[in-house]
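Need tokens for this chain, all 410 residues.
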Amino acid sequence: MKILVLNSGSSSQKACLYEVGATLPEHPPACLWEGKIEFGGDTAAITVKNSHALVEREQVRIVSREDVVKRMLSTLVDGKTRALASLSEIDAVGHRVVHGGPHFAEPVVITPEVRSAIAGVLPLAPLHIPAALEGMEIVENILGAVPQVAVFDTGFYRRLPPPAAVYPGPYEWFESGIHRYGFHGISHEYCAKRAAQLLGSNPASLKLVTCHLGNGCSLSAIHGGHCVDTTMGFTPLDGLMMGTRSGAVDPGILTFLMRQHQLDGEQIDQILNHKSGLLGISGVSSDMREILVATQQGHERAKLAFDIFVHRLQTAIGGMVAVLGGIDALAFTAGVGENSPDVRAAACAPMGFLGLKLDNELNRRPSLDADISTADSGVRVLVIRAEEDWAIAAECWQLTRVFPSVSAAG
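Here are the structure tokens for all 410 residues:
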């Protein structure tokens, strides 16, 4: 069975093609083909490669996001990276959908009604939902009636305990569906399972703090394989400082801006989602790599941005450890988590009181899916490759096992 996965991010679009046999493999298989788009200004960078390590790169002008995504998908069957003789070989398509709202927790086959319900939560994830819906439409235009499956980032948090899920506003908020949904759940759930494998431990016995650090950032406290707290909330705007998102701020700031500067909801939303975080503080970039370069060059605001990012990360890790009543392992994943030894070292620096000891050499040159703590560390520190795409593909495969007619339709 060939499964195409579309993972629509706030500033990127990823896609992977997997082939899955009669049983799911224990570890993620290599992609037959993978592509990535990084959107920036009025151009987009497309990178695609196939299982033979043939790579193509292209810089294109953005006419529309849809045109760029179609261009990337065309390389599945054209050019040196082609992996299929025909797009009709694709049996199912899985989509990462950031917000399931009050309706969806489990993966679901996409119907017009499902798409309409997903569109209804657009105000809760304005950076992500439009891209996911657009991806569904593009697939329908290109592949016709191929089964499509939505896998929800919020699903992992469906059992979040009420003290963590309910906001301390009027109880009517909760009754009307305003509560902590949590995000990056596909990544956190996979990370927790992979951590248990790496440690050779029963997931039911582990206390984990997983750190998904990319353009969007979140932490989850996971006990016995279930999330008991997380930093993102009703929307993906809450919690840690991010690339362009503020994370948690005093809500009084927002009412002050509304009253004193006559800003409306749209303007505030634009500031918090697009003009804050690393970019807003540094004035340089939303990319941690560029922040670190600027810091080394003596750029004071870039250094401040890094210091705020680390401070909030340390504070959140400490809070998660307190909720868990201890910690067995701290895991880093996603773009910054996997690739920035500076962030990992700074985050771990004050954690010696927990018995955590980072191996500086391993941290500087880590292998993915590896332990970078010292042999005598009381807390294991793991760097785990983000495998959201494979987790989505596995959910697609399992759903077709439950509903064979879905597979037959493809």
